Amino acid sequence: MLEDDSGVTKKRTLQLSSMSVSFRSHEMGEVELSCLAYAKMYLHASQFPRCSVNGLLLSSSPAGGDVCITDCVPLLHTHLSLAPITQLALTQVDAWCSQTHQRIMGYYQANACVSDSSPTPCALKIAEKIFEQCNNAVLLMIDGEKMFPGCRVPPIVMYERKDARWALKDKHTIMLRQWEETCAIVNQLFSSGDQALLVDFDSHLDDITKDWTNQKLNAKIMELISPANGNV
Amino acid sequence: ITSTNVSLSCISEMRDKLRKWREENYRNSEQIVDVGEELLNEHASKLGDDIWIIYEQVMIAALDCSRDDLAWSCLQELKRQFPDSHRVKRLAGMRLEALERYEDANKLYDSILQDDPTNTAARKRKISILRAQGKSSEAIRELNEYLEQFVGDQEAWHELSELYINEHDYAKAAFCLEELMMTNPHNHLYCEQYAEVKYTQGGLENLELARKYFAQALKLNNRNMRALFGLYMSASHIAASPKVSAKVKKDNMKYGAWAASQISRAYQMAGRGKKENKCSVKAVEEMLESMQITMS
């Protein structure tokens, strides 16, 4: 048993093989997080270190069965709790998803105040809305305190819907394949300067020639993901 | 690059950049550190009296980038030149804040305020510490007290509106933005933020206010996309409401249609020649279409 800073006791299995973090559980409710989705979330949080940021988690795998978060759309870095732009973004991402055979199945947020990674009322509200359409929706909070070079654990905390509330998801059921390779890819994006390519919906509204679907950045990330990796 | 190789025009270009960023209050700290560090390390002798304000600017940017080494050396130069200055003391306090030594920082600010109770900079730093510690309600309380005395401080009103928005206290956020709009009637951003708050509060009356202020923001800046989308969405929602008269419905459908055509046009222009924009253009078109269906 290990205690983290908030005094909450968490069971953590430090089975860090060179290829993946956390082992496959045979229980239902396993969620896989793709390299592409993780990288863009991380880049989003890094691009606005002084702001709270949020975004949507997408899946291109069919509903039912194991869940895989295959992509994400970074949304806002200002006024997360105001309605109009959030509504606008949800509508547009929805439209784009139906064009591209994806579905919105989760929400992520990184709080400006690094020492507190608990879900805000705003996060719960949006996650609730997503849950109405998707019954295995997840809420992902990025833990800013674990975002430093050389950190051996993914800086994420995931919640799922259980008994009419959002409960902490068992870390054993969160899969991040090729964790070390994912970290290497993120580092590569920073050293090449490609991390600046990331566009969120807020930035798109400041300049609508910028692409919030991040086609260019996606292509760069896919290039870096080795062909041997089945995690697409 | 030694100082003999860098031309004077290059140095003056760097100085101009720093001045522009200072005057416009940009927080591009990485760039400021980049340019400023080179200027200070290589060309200090050519900066004249500007050097002190550059030390201050670079120090603050260095704190923002966790460059305590650079911040410390800037602070030493400033302390040496202005040994009893409250302004420099405040900078020392900011460094303590960056190191999360909040108690020490507060002591420093309190000593400034003992000497000079009207020192607004020290008061505002104390409020920033409350914010950094996540003590929102206390920050709000202190900021309200501050504004009772310094009612014209725009920066403080805006900070307060942000705090209220984070706490979901939209009525009070609206009040702050009303103050800002009164004193800055040409600022389209305040109009648009006010409209967003009203929209969030919801209800027919607030939606109509939202629409009016989105329209006002557009009048002040016709390229404000948030205002354009906001106008479209508020007008559409009003038109779709069963509680409005036929005339109100008709008027709002007109506003909505106008906004939709402006949005379409803007996206067509933006998408021209850029392959990667096809996705966002398509998404907007679909959205406009689907909302038309629900409205009619």
TrEMBL record, chain A:
<dbReference type="InterPro" id="IPR005366">
    <property type="entry name" value="EMC8/9"/>
</dbReference>
<feature type="domain" description="MPN">
    <location>
        <begin position="31"/>
        <end position="165"/>
    </location>
</feature>
<comment type="subunit">
    <text>Component of the ER membrane protein complex (EMC). EMC8 and EMC9 are mutually exclusive subunits of the EMC complex.</text>
</comment>
<dbReference type="Pfam" id="PF03665">
    <property type="entry name" value="UPF0172"/>
</dbReference>
<dbReference type="InterPro" id="IPR037518">
    <property type="entry name" value="MPN"/>
</dbReference>
<protein>
    <submittedName>
        <fullName>ER membrane protein complex subunit 9-like</fullName>
    </submittedName>
</protein>
<dbReference type="GO" id="GO:0072546">
    <property type="term" value="C:EMC complex"/>
</dbReference>
<comment type="similarity">
    <text>Belongs to the EMC8/EMC9 family.</text>
</comment>
From TrEMBL, chain B:
<feature type="repeat" description="TPR">
    <location>
        <begin position="154"/>
        <end position="187"/>
    </location>
</feature>
<dbReference type="InterPro" id="IPR055217">
    <property type="entry name" value="TPR_EMC2"/>
</dbReference>
<dbReference type="Pfam" id="PF22890">
    <property type="entry name" value="TPR_EMC2"/>
</dbReference>
<protein>
    <recommendedName>
        <fullName>ER membrane protein complex subunit 2</fullName>
    </recommendedName>
</protein>
<dbReference type="InterPro" id="IPR039856">
    <property type="entry name" value="EMC2-like"/>
</dbReference>
<comment type="subunit">
    <text>Component of the ER membrane protein complex (EMC).</text>
</comment>
<feature type="domain" description="EMC2 TPR-like">
    <location>
        <begin position="89"/>
        <end position="198"/>
    </location>
</feature>
<dbReference type="InterPro" id="IPR011990">
    <property type="entry name" value="TPR-like_helical_dom_sf"/>
</dbReference>
<keyword id="KW-0256">Endoplasmic reticulum</keyword>
<dbReference type="InterPro" id="IPR019734">
    <property type="entry name" value="TPR_rpt"/>
</dbReference>
<keyword id="KW-0802">TPR repeat</keyword>
<comment type="function">
    <text>Part of the endoplasmic reticulum membrane protein complex (EMC) that enables the energy-independent insertion into endoplasmic reticulum membranes of newly synthesized membrane proteins.</text>
</comment>
<dbReference type="GO" id="GO:0072546">
    <property type="term" value="C:EMC complex"/>
</dbReference>
<comment type="similarity">
    <text>Belongs to the EMC2 family.</text>
</comment>
<keyword id="KW-0472">Membrane</keyword>
<keyword id="KW-0677">Repeat</keyword>
